[in-house]
Amino acid sequence: MATIEKIRNDIAKTKDKIADLQKKQRALEAQLAEEENLEIVRMVKAVKMDNKELTAFLKAYASGLITLPEDMMAEDSGDQEEPAEMEGYEDEA
């Protein structure tokens, strides 16, 4: 019977560790999103367009009226990595 209790205790400790790591992951993901947002804001401010100009540019790009040069697209494709999705993962915390 002592072995069963030890296993139950180990399970409880493991669940606690998992919950703590999930909290840490969420905090890191929020921090990453904030840093990405700040980077976007810095890039937009560096362009020095007013709100109307920027809106018109983004709408034209989204609709396909304008495109970026191929060499610019090649530079950007290597900079960003998409995070791997974890299939079947459910947050238990």
Per DSSP, the total helix count is 3
Distance between the termini: 29 Å
User: In percent terms, what proportion of residues is strand?
Assistant: under 5%
| Helical residues, percent | over 70%
Task: Indicate how many domains the architecture comprises.
Answer: 1
Which sheet architecture does the biggest sheet show?
Answer: none
Runs with pLDDT <50, length 5+? Answer: 82-93
Taken in chain order, the helices and strands follow as HHH
Give the overall silhouette: rod-shaped
Mean pLDDT across the residues is 84
Structural class: mainly alpha
**C-alpha-based Rg, rounded:** 23 Å
Number of strands: 0
Region (Disordered): 73-93
Keywords: Coiled coil
Protein name: DUF4315 family protein
Organism: Ruminococcus turbiniformis
Describe the 3D structure.
It is a single chain. The protein has one domain. It has 93 residues and is mainly α. It is 74% helix and 0% strand. The protein has helices at residues 2-47, 51-63, 70-79. The protein is rod-shaped, with a radius of gyration of 23 Å. It contains 3 helices and no strands.
Summarize the structure.
This is DUF4315 family protein. The chain is mainly α. It has three helices and no strands.
Please describe the structure with a list of short key phrases separated by commas or semicolons:
single chain; 93 residues; mainly alpha
